[in-house]
Amino acid sequence: MTAQPFTKAPVFSLPQDELLTLNAADIPVIKDALAPGVNYQPLFLDPEVGIWVVLAHFAPGAELPVHLHTGAVHGYTLSGKWAYREYPDQPQTAGSYLYEPGSSIHQFYAPEDNTDDTVVLFIVYGANINFTPEGQFHSVLDAITIKTLTEQLSEAQGLGKVNYLTGGSARYTAN
Question: Which residues belong to any copy of the ChrR-like cupin domain (predicted)?
Fold first, then answer.
């Protein structure tokens, strides 16, 4: 049975002719994207709004560079264990939910003694500003960078076109 749209509500809504949904099992894991053992599946990338949602997979011993968040981050650990170098006594394990306010700075790592990959759902607003171990600027990681990496790495890894959700695009209404 097809759901009938409710049209008598006294409010306006965006038109939607289908449910925007996907299954992570249908999205390939893009390998060694940011560093060895740092893999991800893109779920939602919106460069205009500056939000990106990924399932991140970290091999034992994998780590990210020190980075500053320009916006808030929500993280939910599905499996494995990870921590920040700055807070090693607060490891995140399966079932842990973490909120990071904008302007937080830290370095993520998955312990080398993990027996399996760590999988974390990240909802990121804005960008990660990445730094070298010496504290020098390294790179920016944001929705447009993840989008570009997805295109380049999926082709290089023979994964084909990767399906994920995305936001609208800016344009003139009269053109």
Answer: 34-126
pTM equals 0.91
Helices (H) and strands (E) in the chain, counts: 1, 13
Residue 25 tokens read as: 């099992």
Per-residue pLDDT of the chain (175 residues), as tens digits, is 455 565 677 888 777 788 899 999 999 999 999 899 999 999 999 999 999 999 999 999 999 999 999 999 999 999 999 999 999 999 999 999 999 999 999 999 999 999 999 999 999 999 999 999 999 999 999 999 999 999 999 999 999 999 999 988 888 888 6
Would 31 be classed as within a structural domain? yes
111 by DSSP, 3-state: which? coil
- Contact assessment for residue 132 and residue 141, using Cβ atoms and an 8 Å cutoff: no
For residue 149, tell me if it sits in a domain: no
